[in-house]
Amino acid sequence: MKILLIGRGKMGKLIQSTAKAAGDEVVAAFGHDDLGKLAGLGKVADVVIDFSRPEALPAVCEYVRRTGTPLLSGTTGYTEAQKAELFALGSTVPVLWSANFSLGVAVLYRALRTISDVLKPDFDIEITETHHNQKADAPSGTAKLLVEAIDPAHALTPVYGREGNCGKRGKDEIGVHALRGGTVAGTHSVHFFGPDEELEFTHRAASRQIFVNGALHMARLLPGQPAGVYDLQKILFGE
């Protein structure tokens, strides 16, 4: 597989080394300092893999539309308008975006979709996420993904941290709390607090390698697929 990589940070470097070890070829890699070169580049790869920042989206979209190259994106921090722009590419090419390409997180998402409606009437729900001190966005894209799994109808009100005399916790709240420090690759916990009992789900990433392995696996499935927006859950579980 030939890869055009957007993003030369820690994830980008790990994608390059992992792809090379697997026999894939990263034909070009662009960062924020030379992203403008995309405008003069033709189709050179089987797939574009984007693990950069939201501000790179216009250049990435222009390239994908012009060349028809499938896109896999793991970039987080998008606004809803930016997500709409990204998904609009599905009218011409296969597009797969996920805030987290870990198999464990995908299973956690599915589990939360299954059990949350049973617990929501009587349980308070809080999410905590912990990442390294270099992470730029908060809450994490994975935390937002888990909120969506729990509350797809958006009936609950997210509360991002609490401070001062904020009063009693409302029944329609879902707390989302971000911790930053050290070199933590990513820990996400979902707490269900009920009358005299608590249920907790926790996923811990020991390294970024799990995200890279998942992203490369999914990227190999995109070339040759019909245009459209692909969902990680549907690919994994055949829904």
What attributes characterize this protein structure?
alpha/beta; Dihydrodipicolinate Reductase, domain 2; 2 domains; 6-stranded parallel β-sheet; 7 helices; 32% helix
Please tell me about this protein's structure.
The protein has 239 residues and is an alpha/beta fold. It folds into two domains: 2-101 and 209-237, 3-Layer(aba) Sandwich (Rossmann fold), CATH 3.40.50; 103-204, Dihydrodipicolinate Reductase, domain 2. The protein has seven helices and eleven strands. Strands 2-1-3-4-5-11 form a six-stranded parallel sheet, with helices on both faces. Strand 9 and strand 10 (197-204) form a beta hairpin.
Report how far apart the termini are: 26 Å
Discrete helix count: 7
Cross-sheet strand order for the largest sheet: 2-1-3-4-5-11
Helical percentage: 25-40%
How many DSSP-defined strands? 11
| Overall CATH architecture of the largest domain | 3-Layer(aba) Sandwich
**CA gyration radius, whole angstroms:** 19 Å
**Tell me, what's the shape?**
elongated
Number of domains: 2
β-strand amount = 25-35%
CATH domain class of the largest domain: Alpha Beta
Major sheet details = 6 strands, parallel
Q: Which spans of ≥5 residues are poorly predicted at pLDDT below 50?
A: none
What is the CATH H-level superfamily of the largest domain?
NAD(P)-binding Rossmann-like Domain
Provide the succession of SSEs: EHEEHEHEHEHEEEEHEH
Mean pLDDT score: 95
